[in-house]
Amino acid sequence: MLITAIRQTSPGRLRVVLEDESEIATTLGVVTDQRLYAGRELDEGALALLRRDSARALGRERALELVSRRAFSRKELRDKLLQKGESEDTAEYSVQWLEDNGFLNDESYAAAIARHYAAKGYGPGRVRAELGRRGVPRDFWDEALLAMPEPDDKLDRFLAARLRDPDDREQVRKLSNALYRRGYSWEEIRSALRRYDAQTEEY
Fold first, then answer.
1. Which of 4, 13, 169, 197 has the fewest C-beta atoms lying within 10 Å of its C-beta?
2. What does the pLDDT look like over 117-166, one tens digit per residue?
3. Which of 101, 105, 146 is closest to 124 using CA atoms?
4. Which fold has domain 106-146?
5. Where do the structural domains in the chain lie, given as residue ranges?
6. What is the DSSP string of 100-113?
7. How many whole angstroms separate alpha carbon 48 and alpha carbon 44?
8. What CATH code would you report for 3-100?
């Protein structure tokens, strides 16, 4: 297949025009690496390589743009690329390239998620749910959870701000359920209630 023209569409982006009038969107890097020029004849292998490398280069740029906006887990980014129309090959290549070059790290991401939700007053249960939802491998969960601050202070502040009467069983039940939904275990909640009772008895 003969290349009839190579047109620049934007900085670093080009289109390779073929003799059958089809076009392949690509990058300057691919054109340079494969030494492409108008008038060059491509056999089937060279054409397949051009299509693959062009898709990968553009997919990698899209992936870099995504991670520049916010952090992703490996699985989240792969799913996002597939959702945006990238092929399995391009998505997997792009994710692996970003991971190999330090732009993607599930272990660091897990720690960041744990810190974020701990700062918002959520417990380990909520963090586990978020790590699972975001596709972070379980290998990284324990270390992220261990790095979370002890929940006692947050639980104590929560109860001090909201619990008016520790003898009001309905109020205690509602607040306990609210804390459970925030990711705290029943044992952590019971311990916080005991501390609250002990503190109020002192006054």
1. 169
2. 887 878 888 888 889 999 999 889 988 887 776 665 667 777 777 777 77
3. 146
4. Arc Repressor Mutant, subunit A (1.10.10)
5. 3-100, 106-146, 152-201
6. HTTS--HHHHHHHH
7. 6
8. 1.10.10.10
